[in-house]
Amino acid sequence: MFKPVALLVALTAAFAAPVALAAAPSEPTRIEHRYLEQLSYTGTTQLVRALDAELVQGDGEVIDSLKLYFSEYSLWNLQAAAGLALRSDNREDLVPLPAGSYFTSTHTRLSKDGRILALAAGKGGQLDALRWQRGGKLERLVPAAQAWRSGVSDMSADGKTITGWLLADKNALPRGFVWTEQHGFSLLPETLSVPLAISADGTTLVGDSYRGTLAMLRQRMAVQTFENEAPLADNPRIKRWEIVGVSDSGRRLAGFVQLANAPVWQGFLWDAESGFVTQAKPAVLRHKGKGTPDLAAFSRRVLAVAGMSEAQRLQFLQTDALRWHVTEGLSTLQANASVAGLSRDGSTTLLHAHSGNGQHPLWQLTKSGTVNLNKAVGNDDAYLNLLALSEDGRRMWLTVNNDSGSHTVLLEDARLPAFPPALSVIAPQVFSADARRMAGGGYDTEQGYPTLHWTMGTATPQQLNCPGEDRSSSRYVLSGDGKVVGAGQYDNGLAHICLFGPLP
User: How confident is the model at residue 18 (pLDDT cuts 50, 70, 90)?
Assistant: First the structure.
């Protein structure tokens, strides 16, 4: 795929010239038998949990349910909540959850001062959006009569405004809500299905609106199961494949393949439990003329042979990207798009536009206008994944994914700056709130695989080694100010954390 010549030259130069590593300024604090979830803005408070409990088989039903409604997001990521606590100065205050609870770790939020926690947690099939002030009692954000299940998406910096989602019952599409310390719970406009991010002051939030039905969500989950199983992957005899219909249960999928070496299309039926189903007379299309055959008519034959009706034809649920402001109300940012990020000052929104040709360009929306970030990185065909967005929206780190692999780039004011040589030795994973500091694993060096910390404007990353370790961390967390790195290890059921900092 095409990449800017300047970027390729910079990459070559960076890898040709080795970058020295600087030693850490002080010994870290090692915390035994704990797994690190988050750090407060200055790193003085840590959200930790134990690893002596696991999810039970029954909890999988909750995960599957959340995947059905939110498969495009990380809202379904559950972890056992054993030992979940706020820790500072060697003191831990446990979150008052009952034994056997789980929580949605990816969307748990910690206030800037480290005193307030917002999370979704439950046990035995329940899941509720909750708020907890250290030393106090749990607050339920959504009235019990309003929701079968509910969860948290994001929280303001002071912890006084929280946005999230709820499911009124098993057959309802998700609905957004906002909770404030002053006014309590209120529903967002009905079209705002999934709030995803809120500004630091709690006045602006962005999210996605579902245009579709629960049946479409079930179809989407079934197709994703098929794609994850990848039963047609790496088959040289197949040029392409397409899913045509999904059974009401979501267990069976009907589709067809196009052969690679002949103008022939053949239908198939796939079962999620048993794999491909043998059909006595599968639908076959042999095209002898020029141009494209009538695949619409062929699709109807594939459905009929599979025993499916037109009502079971695959339909794609669509999303629109929306914005809500506390005084301005609801507005559409872009139809046929999904939200990718919001700067904490609320000035900049990132979204993926869903084009008809299968591409999903990343757009940056500000008061100054709209910028196609794929153009900014010089790759129209790549899928850009947001790693970090600065609080003012001017700086962002992206992963550029295309057929030839992936690489990380930095954009400042929607332009590529000079390539930072430090990226030749560090694989960045976590970033400070201003996106000027990062931490991650080190590539193979004479020092092994150290944890590295780097600040923009400096040529040399800092090497951080936890006592007793001979390789880098399997878990990285960075404080909002970027001056404290939490590096964690997990091995055979045991865990520990090394806290480095404050770093210069």
Answer: low
List, in order, residues 6 or more apart from 494 with CB less than 8 Å away.
33, 51
Sheet holding 462-464, edge to edge: 22-23, 462-464, 451-455, 437-442, 426-431
pTM: 0.90
Whole-number pLDDT of residue 335: 96
Which of 331, 348, 441, 423 has its CA nearest to residue 391?
A: 348
Using one digit for the tens of pLDDT, what is the confidence trace for 42-99?
A: 999 999 999 888 899 889 999 999 999 998 898 989 999 999 999 999 999 999 999 9
- Whether 323 and 351 have beta carbons less than 8 Å apart is answered as no
Pull the structure tokens for residue 82.
Answer: 């054993």
Lookup result for tokens 């619409």: 296
Nearest to 118 by CA among 195, 30, 207: 195
For 261, list phi and psi in degrees, rounded to 5: -110, 10
Is the N-terminal amide bond of 502 cis, ω within 30° of 0? yes
pLDDT, tens digit, 9 for 90 and up, residues 445-461: 555 667 899 999 898 89
Per the structure block, which two tokens stand in for 366? 């500000």
The CA distances from residue 375 to 57, 333, 383, in Å, are 46, 20, 12
Return the structure tokens found at 180: 């404030």
Q: How far apart are CA 115 and CA 129, in angstroms?
A: 17
Helices and strands: H and E segment counts in the chain = 5, 39
Nearest to 177 by CA among 204, 151, 209: 151
Pair of tokens at residue 355: 């084009």
The pLDDT tens digits for 335-353 are 999 999 999 999 999 999 9
Q: Residue 446, exposed/middle/buried by CB under 10 A (0-12, 13-18, 19+)?
A: exposed
Per-residue pLDDT at 396: 97
Sheet holding 318-325, edge to edge: 194-198, 204-211, 318-325, 329-334
User: Any residues with CB less than 8 A from the CB of 283 and at least 6 apart, and which?
Assistant: 256, 266, 267, 298, 301, 302, 304, 305
Pairing mode of beta strands 275-276, 395-402 = unpaired
pLDDT of residue 403: 80
343 CB contacts (<8 Å, ≥6 apart)?
199, 349, 389, 390, 391, 392, 393
The secondary structure of the chain in percent helix, strand, coil, rounded to multiples of 5, reads 15, 40, 45
Q: How far apart are CA 156 and CA 179, in angstroms?
A: 11
CB burial string 259-272: b at 16+ within 10 A, e below: eeeeeebbbbbbee
